[in-house]
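Why show two proteins at once? Because comparison is the fastest way to build intuition. When a single record is shown, students tend to memorize it. When two are placed side by side, the eye starts asking what differs. So, the first record is below.
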Amino acid sequence: MWFFSRKGSQSGFSAYNTAEEVTHGIDASGLTAIVTGSSNGIGAETARVLAMRGVQVVIAVRNTSAGMAVKETLVKETPSAKVYVLELDLSSMASVRKFVSEFKALSLPLNILINNAGAICPYKLSPDNIELQFATNCLGHFLLTDLLLETMKWTASRGNIEGKIINVSSEGYKLAYREGIRFDKLNDESWYNRFGAYGQSKLANILHANELSRRLKEDGMEITANSLHPGAIVTNLWHNSSTVSGWLTKAFGSTVEKLLVKNVKQGASTTCYAALHPNVKGVSGKYFVDNNISVPNAQATDTELAKKLWDFSMTLIHQGRKHRLTKPGRSPPLLLVKPYQVKILPLSKI
């Protein structure tokens, strides 16, 4: 458990440090960052600390009223902060494309992209008829990153400042199905387990960052891509999971829960460390835990699985651009996958 690792290792920081502590003394004026899922929890704290350090922050949220409330808090605390609020529903490819269009209309540079938003929920399909956790936690961020990459490349080359893409994953990736990503059963409700699906989506976050890092290095781009585990934090991520919500308190009591679970300020620290700390310059394709580089399991470092996920995701976002994957009223589609090929068939035809 994280509470045993009070002493830091490579970085000098540990699980006990807050986002403010790991960025103390850093002047990030002139940088621009997008933080998804920043209306509450570690996303809001990440946005707050980035703004405190001088970063121009774009709050990307489903609920713009909640986003505006965060903006008001940030500006009240840091009057010089430049904060924008834009609507983004990562479960919808149309919403992701609309967000990117609105962001580009602002004519802002982009130095840091923090793919923070996440969900855990019972079985449900997204507006594009893709299993909701995979659509929100993985595919929406994959599309967002893909659409913003040219802006990040332009910013990095123009300002000679390294760009950073950060996927907020979770140690929950170890809950993924045995095969890792169920490419051929993604939408099959009969195989669905909410925690297995959550683990699958968090594994996908790590694999996405790894493959993106490899491609950026091949292209010689001054942009890094990393993933991280923020720590065990009970936030609004669990609002759809009555199984998890309050479990630690019921099982151990509030005093023990405080030892087992990080607070939000500690939970946002690894994200802010990866985004701003000089120690991370040039570091790419790594997985961070408690403000230090960690080594995930073999599945999360499987290069062939990462490449297959990349091609699978590319196929889905290009298909989603043309049409929804099934017509309303028909059975949820089952994704049948051969290497690098995807066919969409309704269950009634199988």
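Second record. Ask yourself what differs from the first in the token line.
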Amino acid sequence: MKIASTKKMNTGNLFCCNCLQLVSPPIKQCSNKHSICGKCQPKGETSICPKCANRLYAVSYDELEKVIAQLNKEKVTFPCAYESKGCSYKIEQAQKLLHESECKFRSFQCEGKKYCGWKCDWVGKYDQLLDHFRNHHDCGMNYKVDRALKINFAVDSTSLEPIDYYDGCALFWYKQKVDVSLQMVYWVIQYVGLQKDACQYFYEFEIHDGPIRKIKITEFCESDSMDANSILKSGQCVALPFSAVKSFLSVEGYLYFRFRVMKVKKPSTANNDEENAELKNLVAQMRINCPPMHPRRTNHDAQNCPQKNPFGKKRSNK
């Protein structure tokens, strides 16, 4: 069977109308060409399309497999599954699942339930996250924080707060964990969004006991799509043993810490370097071609010019 160029064909029916991912066998389609993959097919003898309620029929996977192989070969891009919600990204199939797991237009479950086990069934949009935590969990941070923390070293615990970066320009998660079995305290800050954007930010974290004693650690941010516990195990975070943390406790038992989230400064690009070099050459050329405003006097000029006496009298040559 000859397959038409995938760049000219409609690839909409290659994606499951239920999970929005590339269909996998056993595949069924309805009369409207809505596809559904095996894992999403409703149970029962009669399968009904979840999108239009028409009956579903089995589709030959051999033909579809050839089309999918050609899609990967030609590096055809597809819209994000959240295109209808505002995402404008076009991605290749190999990167589609990863992008959609990080996309800001996805639905968000309460991060407190995921990380800390809070009893919260809230689900919402990216731009509703801050209000949810402020109104329902009474918590939230700025991107620059200076606080005191009371730690119970006898009990495993986790805590979490959202970080507002410049009034909504970006959103981060502050996560802290006490692990009694490992005798460790962890902190990590995660960017809410794509990993390629997360690596543009870093954080400085510091515990201190007065103006002299301090421990400061700087680390890059990771995307919130990464499991926080995996980041803690990797060591790409702030990880301090109980002994070190306890040595910084105040008399009242508080740990004083501060952190700030910052954006990585972009180095000057090659184009900027070329423009600067051209400007320097132009200035140097102007200096060569243009005489100075006040040329230096020669010995000949000094001999022919009368010298003035600062006291108003004629200077004697004797």
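One difference worth noting in the second protein: The two ends are 116 Å apart (CA to CA).
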